[in-house]
Amino acid sequence: MATTQDAALTPLDAIARYWWAFIVTGAMWVLIALVILQFDQASITTVGVLIGIMLILSGFQNIALGMIVDSLKWVWWLFGILLLVGGVIALMTPENTFAALADILGFVFLIIGVFWTIDAFMGRGVNPLWGLGLFAGILMIILAFWTGGQFFIEKSYLLLVFAGIWALMHGVGDMVRAFQLKHIKDV
Q: What is the spatial distance between Cα 163 and Cα 160, in angstroms, rounded to a whole number?
């Protein structure tokens, strides 16, 4: 049975209860970034598996947020489902994942950059550090156009570096979000 106090919780308050989960996922993203950035002549299979794991983690995050937010749930669910499907496919064929991602790297970064930019503007009213998300989104869009002009061999190394940068930015963003939510919870 819901109490009057539970009924008065806003979606942001509900998310703020789980601020620590963003610390955990942020730390996992940073760990994945460190693993990826340690490869100098990387195993293609290992990188394909790591990319699959990154996609699945991001998919679950988006679906969880879609269950909590009040508006535009379909956007979170859509991205979550697409990321989960992509992650499963990546885990099934990690070698092909690496080659395919190297070929379409610019497009993938463009989608991520646009999503992060939209997310930053959507959170502008409640997130005083929304500019950090906007900066990350714009940086990913710039990387998308720069990556689009590279050759495959250069793209394979860029894939490693940029996948590491993506995971690092995602992890830092989650940790910043965690402390913002903790502040909301404490207020």
A: 5
Can you tell me the distance from the alpha carbon of 76 to that of 72, in angstroms, rounded to the nearest whole number? 7
Residues sharing a CB contact under 8 Å with residue 43, sequence separation 6 or more, in sequence order: none
Residue 5 identity: Q
What Cα–Cα distance (Å) separates residue 80 from each residue in 4, 43, 56?
A: 32, 27, 8
Is residue 171 within 8 A of residue 28, CB to CB? The reply is yes
Both tokens of residue 9? 């919780």
pLDDT at 161 over 80: no
The DSSP letter of residue 151 is -
pLDDT in tens, 96-113: 887 777 777 778 888 989
Residues 6+ apart with CB under 8 A from 184: 12, 13, 16, 19
- Residue by residue, DSSP assigns 142-153 as HHHHHHHTS-HH
Lowest mean pLDDT among 118-127, 143-152, 169-178: 143-152
- Nearest alpha-carbon partner for 70 in 147, 20, 12, 122: 12
